[in-house]
Every structure is written in C-alpha cells, then in structure tokens.
Amino acid sequence: MATTAETAAAPVVKDDASNRPTTASLYVGELDPSVTEAVLFEIFNIIGPVDSIRVCRDAVTRRSLGYAYVNYHNIADGEKALETLNYTNLKGKSIRIMWSQRDPSLRKSGEGNIFIKNLDASIDDKALFDTFSAFGKILSCKIATENGVSKGYGFVHFEHSDDAENAIKNVNGMLLNNKKVYVGHHIPKKERDAKIEELRNQYTNIYIKNIDENITDDQLRAAFEKFGKITSLVIQKDDEGKSKGFGFINYETHDEAKKAVDEMNDTELGSKKIYVSRAQKKNEREEELKKQYEKIREEKLNKYQGVNLYIKNLDESVTDEVLREKFSPFGTITSAKVMCDEKNENKSRGFGFVCFSSPDEATKAVAEMNGSNLNGKPIYVALAQRKDVRKAQLEVQMNQRLQIRNMQANQMMNNNGMYNNQQIFYGGMPHMNPGRNMYYQQGMIRPHQWNGQEGYNGQHQYRRNQRNGPRRGKYNNNNNNNQNQQAAPAQEQAAAPAPATETETQVQQPTAGVSGITEAELSKLSPEERRNKLGEALFTAISKINQNYVGKITGMLLEMKTNEIITLLDNPDVLKQKVEEAVKALDEFQQSQKNAQ
C-alpha cells in the first residue's frame, strides 16, 4: 500500500527480551461462527505441534463467540504462527491473531492504544498493521467493520507507549491512500460517553416539529426570540419551497435554549401544537427510540409473565370463543386467541394463547388442562415463553440428549478397547464424544494424549492362533467383519501351538498390512512424527470415502490408540463403515441445529 505516511521517519523497533511472552498461548479473533477446533487444528498444526485449541462458546447455546485460544508446546511456534497466519482468510473472514494477555490490566489501561479515523475503505487489518508496524511492536490491530465493510476507523495497540506517541506524531494528518487521516490516543468508551453526555447537557440547538405549514421563518423567530438571542433559525422546506413541518433554532447560551424547550413544548403555534426538544443526531435519536421500545416491550413481557398460557395441538374447529369457554372455569380471562393463517383463508394454525388475570389462575389451568381432550384432540398447555428463552432451552435439551448418546456410545466399547458393531461417532460438535479421550466433549483438542507406551497393552486380545497367517499380530475387533480377514488354513489351525504369553506376543512384530504401516516402524518415531504419519495415512484413506468431513473425522480418529488406527487403515471396509456412521451422525446433528433455530 503506497502511502505518504511511509515517508515519515520510523523509529527502530525495540526488541525487549523482558517483554517476550512467557506462554505459547495465542488469541485468535474475528472467527466465523462455523469455525470449529478441528478447522483451526488443521491450520495451526502446520506451523508446529499444537498442545490444545479451544473455541469459546456461549454457556447456554454453545454457539461460537467468534474467538479462540491456540496453545503451542513452545513459544517459537507461537511466534511463527503469529507471523505467517495473522490476517489469514478463513471462511470469508480475516482472522486476527495476538498473544493471549492473561493480565487484563494491560488491555484495560489503554496505554499504547491509538485511534485512527477517516480511513479509506480499501484499507484492511493487514494494511493498517503493515503501515504502523514500522513504529514498534503491535499487540493488536483492528479495523471496525459492519457487514464486512470498513466503517472508516480502526485501532492499533502498541506494546510501548512511546511507540504510540511516535506513530501519532508521524502519521496524524498524513495521507493514507490519498485520504488525510486523524491519529490520536484512544479514549475508553466510558470516558467518551461521559463527555458526550456532558456536551448534550450543554446544548444550544433545539428542534421544533409539527409546525403549521403557513408559519414563516419570521413568525417562528417572533415566537422564540423572547427566550434569548437567536444565532440561527431555519424551517426545512422541500424542492417546491413548501414547509416540511419542522425546523431548528440555535441560541447563544444553553440556559436560553433550555428555557425555550421548557416553555414552548406542547404549546399552540398557529393552528397546531408544536413539539420542542433538544436537537439530536439521527443515530442518537434512533438509539433513544430503540431503548424506549425495548423498555416498553420488557414492561409488557413482565406484565404477562406467569399469566399467559400457550396451548397447542388444537383442532381446526376450536375458535377464540371455544377456547375462552373451556378455560373460563379457572379464573378471569383477559384475552383468548387462536392463531390463524391469514394467507390460507384464516385457517387455524393449531395453537393459541389464553391470558388470565393472576398467576394462580394460570397455574391451576395448566395443571387441570394439560393433556385434556378438546374437540377430540389431547391438548398441550404450558406457560407461554419468549422466543429467545424457548430457543435457548431447546438447545440445552438438545445438548443434554447428545451427551446421553455419548455416554451410551462409550458404554458400547467392549473389554478389548474396540467398539462393538454399533454407531460409534456422534462427534464433530462441542458436546459430542466419539470415543474415549476425544477432544470434542469439552471443546478442546488434545493431539498428544498418548497412554504411556504406544502400541500394544494388556487390554487387547490378540489372535495368537493365527500368528503365521496373513493377518497375524492383529487383535480381534469384535466387529463381525471377518470377511476382510483371510482365515488361516485348517491344517495350520490344527498345528497351532499353545497361546503365547503376552511378552512373547509383543516380541513378534506384525507384518505390514494394507496401509504398509507397522507398530515396529512407528515405535522408532517420536510422538509428533508418529502422529503426522498416521494423520497423513488417515487423511488420504478418509478422503477417498468422504470429502466433506475429512478433516474433522481425521482429527477424531487420531485420538484412538495407535494399534486401533492401524487396524482401521488395514481394513478398508471397517474404515468405510465407521466413516459412514460418523457422517450420518454429523449430518443428523447439523439438521437438529437447524431445526432448533
């Protein structure tokens, strides 16, 4: 980005070792709501081994809050990720990465934080970062946007306050993309609001509406000049010169303007009563109207809290009168309404509302009428709820059901550590646990949760009677997929020796199967190399079966034990079955999320 500001003398960037991060924890912001831990793992694991990832979610709805934390094993990988992945486009949004600041005092102090306005619409986060990074180390950089479009201002937070001072000194008033920008210290919102409120209380400009169209500027001045010296006055007119019915008057002092508002509001001028108040900007007026609307709405909801009933499964023959008659024995009804479809000849939509005068009456009606028969159909009666409250409750219930399914899936595991012939993957979402030690239950990815020694352990049962067969060394997966395993010749079974001890079995290394990977080969690798090798093999195999969830399912399967992964890789039919089960469960979960919305 060619800018005039770049010609300014930039100071030498400090390299203060004492200010280096003490943990390899990164904050990742500006995330699309659909971004999951698995998606982030695929991106950040390219830099180096990831210790954990957590997408922060709403405690009730479990929806993403738009930011996450990525933890590396070492600071060097974190620094590399910060350099190479910052402002990467992910699902249409430019992600913002910075070191996680566990000490809130640095964020809240505002020290080193500057504000830039009058920015050209083409300047994005990265361009702003590149421009100001010449003045010192940047902790955070952000352009304010609305629906993906720049609002013309942004913020840059420097590590050192003197770097911020230099940036203000050198860039303020300079041209960025041919636009003169303002750069100054960031003022916290609380201080800005207090200052704005103070200025509002010292207004001199007043607004008058509902002005008679025959009233002239001179007549309006004559009516208002008795309150003080008027510096300007105007009645707004259309293109034809006719009055729009409103205007503005500016006084010399605040006291004069306040007196005019107090005495002239709701008085007659000409043939109409006028409205007089402090002049406001459009956005300020809209904000006030919004607050007033919310207040009225809240009062209305509180008024009917505990007295309004929701009734569903109504027969088409049920009308407002029938509903009122049926519920009137329980108390005084203030309103009864069956909801109808105006676009479909006003036919009943099968539900309605009954409002009582007191909560006791409503509670009694629920107890007596819920499940009762009305015109041949059993009806459901409950206290009416706001849409957002009901939606949140449904999402909680859905998550609870999914957790129960997770528990059931875990119970399906048999003693040798393999899954029975059941649907095993309910995963891919925050509250879904495909198997033991899976990261989805708590929304965390733990790529290196290895159970002591890799490979065989005492829990697994091995097919010792087929040590010389083509599939020797593999354990029985109890999955009824023996058609994929060539049976040992009868004479070989007859001559089979007595079962070997566990130690003897481990000494005899299995031959490479379809995947060409053996535990003997993997045991020579480091945990990171072992995981990468298995991950590449799984990714390749799963991509041939399903392209949509390949990354997600790969991450899930990598949490299994090494020998279990090799068994899946060596049994394409078994792998295909598990992938199809996972895809089905993921599709069902996504559909349930859509239905809940």
From TrEMBL:
Biased composition (Polar residues): 450-460
Major location category of this protein: cytoplasm
InterPro entries named among the record's database cross-references: Nucleotide-bd_a/b_plait_sf, PABP-dom, PABP_1234, PABP_HYD_C, PABP_RRM1, RBD_domain_sf, RRM2_I_PABPs, RRM_dom
A GO term, aspect molecular function: RNA binding
Superkingdom of the organism of origin: Eukaryota
Presence of the UniProt keyword Cytoplasm in the record: yes
Region (Disordered) location: 450-528
Basic residues bias: start-end ranges: 461-474
Keyword RNA-binding: yes
Biological process, per Gene Ontology: mRNA processing
Coiled coil location: 276-303
Domain PABC per the UniProt entry, residue ranges: 514-591
Localization per Swiss-Prot or TrEMBL: Cytoplasm; Nucleus
GO cellular component: cytoplasm; nucleus
Keywords, alphabetical: Coiled coil, Cytoplasm, mRNA processing, Nucleus, Repeat, RNA-binding
Low complexity compositional bias, start-end: 476-506
Domain RRM: 24-102, 112-188, 204-281, 307-386
Stated family: Belongs to the polyadenylate-binding protein type-1 family.
Function description: Binds the poly(A) tail of mRNA.
Protein name (database record): Polyadenylate-binding protein
